[in-house]
Design brief:
The complex is a heterotrimer.
Chain A (H helix, E strand, L loop, with lengths): L5 H26 L3 E11 L1 H7 L8 E10 L3 E8 H12 L10 H26 L3 E3 L3 E5 L1 H4 L1 E2 L2 E2 L3 E11 L2 E11 L1 H19 L1
Antiparallel strand pairs in A: 1-8, 2-3, 2-4, 2-5, 3-9, 6-7, 8-9
Helix pairs in contact in A: 1-4
Chain B lengths: L2 E5 L3 H14 L4 E5 L2 H7 L7 E5 L7 H11 L4 E6 L4 H9 L3 E4 L4 H12 L1
Parallel strand pairs in B: 1-2, 1-3, 3-4, 4-5
Helix pairs in contact in B: 1-5, 2-3
Chain C lengths: L1 H19 L3 E5 L5 E4 L1 H7 L3 H4 L4 H4 L7 H12 L3 E3 L25 E8 L7 E8 L1 H20 L11 H18 L3 E8 L2 H8 L1 H16 L8 E4 L4 E7 L3 H17 L15 E8 L7 H17 L5 E3 L9
Parallel strand pairs in C: 9-10
Antiparallel strand pairs in C: 1-2, 1-5, 3-4, 4-5, 6-8, 6-9, 7-8
Helix pairs in contact in C: 8-9
The chains are: A alpha+beta, B alpha/beta, C alpha+beta.
Chain lengths: 204, 119, 328
Amino acid sequence: MFQLTELQHDALAEIFNLGVGQAAAAMSRIVNEEVTMSVPIVAFQNRAEVATTLDSPNERRICAIAQHFEGAFKTKTFLMFLEEKSLELVRLMVGQSLSMEELSEMEQEAMSEIGNIVLNSCMATLANISGRELQGSLPTYHVGTCNDILSHSDKEWDGVVLTLKIDFNIERHEIHGYVAFLLDLPAMNDLRDYIDAYLAKLTG
Amino acid sequence: MTNVLVVDDSRVSRMLSRQYILHKHPQWTIAEAASGEEAVDKLSDFTPDLILLDVNMPGMGGIAAVEKIREKCPDVHITLLTANVQDAVRERANLLGIHFAEKPITEACIDQIIASYES
Amino acid sequence: MLKHSSHELQLPLLSSVIKAVRTGIIVFDQDQRIVLWNRWIEFHSRLKEEAVLGKTFAEVFPDMVNSRTHIALREALANSLASLISQTLHKAPFPLYINAANPDKGVLMQQAVHVMPLDVAGQPRHCLVQISDVSTAVARERKLREMAQELQSQTFVDGLTGIANRRRFDLHLEDEFRRAKRNASPLSLIMIDVDCFKNYNDNYGHQQGDECLTRIANALSSVLHRSRDLLARYGGEEFSVILPETTAEGAERVAESMRTVVEALALEHAYSHAAPHVTVSLGVSTLVPEHSSQTSHLIHTADRALYQAKHAGRNRVVVFSEPNKKTG
């Protein structure tokens, strides 16, 4: 299993905290409420472990927003919530009461934008420290089990998954979301290089 | 006079806790809240000495509620009620200086909570 | 020779297409200056092409500076990141009007906006903004939601299980209470709570939890036959039953049938402290209402009985009886 040193791990957590801080600011502006986001846990896992982390051992349904990136970092990324939690988040952002059946295409679009904001923020900070360009796709919306979501090119992903557990806080509601990055070997090495460069600049 | 706040989204669970506590201490005052948010609101006009808090509630869960409660009442004795005491949950709770009790809510469970508070 | 002429055809053709499409298209260059402004956006913004070409985003849209859209534009140019501005979270990002022809009818258009980086050969990165009019879709959604909410508030039916909801229960209880008072007849109430239901939900998932409640509701329903008997969903995992003209003994029989019929479902519940399958606890109370009696008294005593059932180990029926201090 891919491993970072404790220092590299801490640096990565800090990099992501910067990113989600910006995402939180963007979301606050949208709802005119204080939105705070924090990244308490960064982990490298395999597919089975991700399902457990999401509290989804019984194949509970997940809502996910997916984007893929190329350039500085080639990866497929997801922002994931348990289905009912995503509903709660949309309700808070949109301010209307809905049932799961009523979650229309438009609320799916709202979820897509939330994913877009969070994933772009996470990746932008990584891109900045890499000093290289990054191309990102538009977000797409998916619902399914954890395994469905993490499939890559119709195959089950058997590589490493970098997961961030993110706490969203809006109007005293706390919602847990997870960002997952599918990393192949080149991407993992790139990541390590970028973190080392970041550390070098800090201690430089 | 001891004030207790019982927080649980299940009406029946709140009722059970209330009955068991009153059975042990008939003169204590008990207030209820059905959610983390309600519990925080309640603190404006009710100052508890002891809070029973269910971990798994929709919206603001037990642990998030503890942090908000601590802001308003730093010294109140808090016991989290949970059916499965995962290590991660327990660790985080210990960091916040709060106690644990395992569900189901039985007389023994409440006795243990009260004993822990009184010690 | 052929390539050259088809290329000559291509450019004017593409230009006509861009002008004609019924979507807003704006292209910004590396300095955030407008280099393409199609007819659709010209019409709906009421800004002529000549007036905006070469001007920056901030000059043309001063109210949008540092908005989500502006940030998205910057990210597309700087970092090559694509962004979606959804119509649900932002009602009208750009100042566009539905009926632009009539300047007095300044109704803002609901928009879905996509902001994407654009690679242009031999030049620094540009940004493509596409804007769609989703006003009709939004209006339709709003109407549907209003209708659904109105239906919901008028209903006496629980959305999940199809049995009576709390509103219906409260009204029916009042009715039957008054009638029992007039006729001096016994009115019975059963309060039912699913044992360890939260554990069920947490471990088997909410979808399965919902199915479980539905099956329980159906099973409980099958026990009742009289027209004035009512089974209702009282709360999340609570049910209640009104039994007019029923004595305590009669109500106890009904309650025991209900307990049995739920147990007979044999729904596996590995996380229950009462049994390896789903069970319910039931509290029964009966009252012949007198002049000063209140429905709350009936509910309160049924609750006390339910508490006793839980206390005694769950999966059972307890009938309320006035506590006898000698026997405790």
